[in-house]
Amino acid sequence: MKRKAFTMIELVFVIVVLGILASIAIPKLNVTRTDAQMTRGMNDVSVIRSSIITTRSENLLKGDATFPPLEKNTGDDMLFDGVLDYPIKEKAANSNNGWTTKKEGNGVGKEYTLTIDGTAVEFDYSNTTGIFTCVGFNEGDTDEAIMARNLCDKLR
After folding, report:
1. Looking at residue 136, what is its pLDDT?
2. 3-class DSSP assignment, residue 67
3. In this structure, how many other beta carbons lie within 10 angstroms of the beta carbon of residue 23?
4. Are 41 and 47 in contact (CB under 8 A)?
5. Which of 8, 56, 99, 115 sits 20 to 30 Å CA-CA off 37?
């Protein structure tokens, strides 16, 4: 007699094996997502720094020795539009990832915050020296503080 179906024990065994594999894989995917967000943040900072230098070089060719402002005074939710061809959209209020800025009186940002999975790292831009650097993060020994310190160390 030929069997045309799986037995119940074979199906249960397959489901248990898939459950074990899923319990191993899902935590790894979450770590991978955080690593991807950190990499994106590091790339953003690298592109911003490179664009500051490129824009300053263009200004020098025009006879202007000043460093560029990072933002135009447009009042929209796009950041770094003074130096980037494709500006970065400011993070939504309900998002755990992205860039925000503290606006100065003229509406142009000078202090920026990069948030990755709820961990905030602050950056400052000096338009007199052209330096865009990490200046602050949460202190302590929590996972969030350690991640912020690591990110800040990678970006210095």
Report:
1. 72
2. coil
3. 9
4. no
5. 56
As a whole number of angstroms, the distance between CA 28 and CA 94 comes to 25
CA–CA gap between residue 104 and residue 130 (Å, rounded):
18
Cβ pair 148, 119 in contact under 8 A: yes
Tokens of 136: 């602050």
Other Cβ atoms closer than 10 A to 83: 24
Residue spans of the domains in the chain: they are 8-155
Quote the pTM value. 0.74
pLDDT of residue 104: 63
Q: What pLDDT is stored for residue 72 in this prediction?
A: 81
Query: What length is written for the chain?
Result: 156
Residue-wise pLDDT for 72-86, tens only, equals: 876 678 889 889 988
Inform me whether the pLDDT recorded for 107 exceeds 70.
Answer: no
Residue 34's closest CA among 93, 96, 94, 102? 96
